[in-house]
Amino acid sequence: MHKPVCCIFNIAPHYRSHIYKMIDQTFNCDFYIGDRIDNSIKLMNYNDLNNFMRIIKYKPLLGNLYFQKGAARTAFKPYKHYIITGDLRCVSTWIILLVTKMLGKQTYLWTHGWYGHEKFVKTQIKKLFFGMSYRVLLYGNYARNLMIKSGFDPEKLVVIFNSLDFDAQCKVRKKLTKIGIYKNHFNNDFPVMLFIGRIQESKKINVLLNPTKELIDKGIYCNLIIIGAGDDL
């Protein structure tokens, strides 16, 4: 028997395992998870989800478009709500949005939303894509404000951030103490800038590297720490 909520995600990274398990327990969802894997991302144990249905295969199409085999069929199943990774490059997600809208179902796209550097054509495509959803679940207020300026109804845009394990983070924060790790490593007291994330061209780490060099060339000394791994390491 199908549950009222269907979750369709590209992958299930380990850092979201807590929130996925909470969604599983609270809403009694069915989970369909794609096999499009970035090797730098550790995955959660899908068996920790009570209602993990199956892995949906990733099929590349033209350019950077792709299809999740079998995902579109869920639109015809007796689900009332769909929580989907909001990637407009996924053709099967477009089909789900169209079919569920015609059937009077509700879709929630979980996404970065707007980045702030979209050109005219990309903006129009995004307006159409996100406009078909019932709600857009966003990682932050920055994207929400940009989308409101682009004409979206504020009620449609819900900020849920990146949904990490907040309870675990609070426990870690309470144990934090001041140590001299950077002072000892660099042997100085200069200000420290941090990047934490995947090492990918899309993260634009050069935005940190270039100004750091310019500051040092001007005699304004600082330290730069890059924490992460990835294909572009």
The end-to-end distance, rounded to whole angstroms, is 46 Å
* SS element count, helices: 7
General form:
globular
Beta-strand content: 15-25%
Biggest pleated sheet: 7 strands, parallel
What is the helix fraction of residues, given as a range? 25-40%
Strand ordering within the main sheet? 3-2-1-6-7-8-9
Mean pLDDT: 90
Please identify the structural class as seen in this structure.
alpha/beta
Radius of gyration: 21 Å
List the helices and strands and how they pair.
Elements: E1 5-9, H1 17-27, E2 30-34, E3 52-56, E4 58-60, E5 66-68, E6 81-85, H2 91-102, E7 106-111, H3 120-131, E8 135-138, H4 141-149, E9 157-159, H5 166-175, H6 181-186, E10 192-196, H7 206-217, E11 223-227
Parallel strand pairs: 1-2, 1-6, 2-3, 6-7, 7-8, 8-9, 10-11
Antiparallel strand pairs: 4-5
Describe the structure.
- There is one protein chain.
- The protein has 233 residues and is an alpha/beta fold.
- Helices cover 31% and strands 21% of the residues.
- The chain is built from seven helices and eleven strands.
- A seven-stranded parallel β-sheet has the order 3-2-1-6-7-8-9, with helices on one face. A two-stranded antiparallel ribbon has the order 4-5.
- The longest helix is centred in the middle third of the chain and has 12 residues, at 91-102.
- The mean pLDDT is 90.
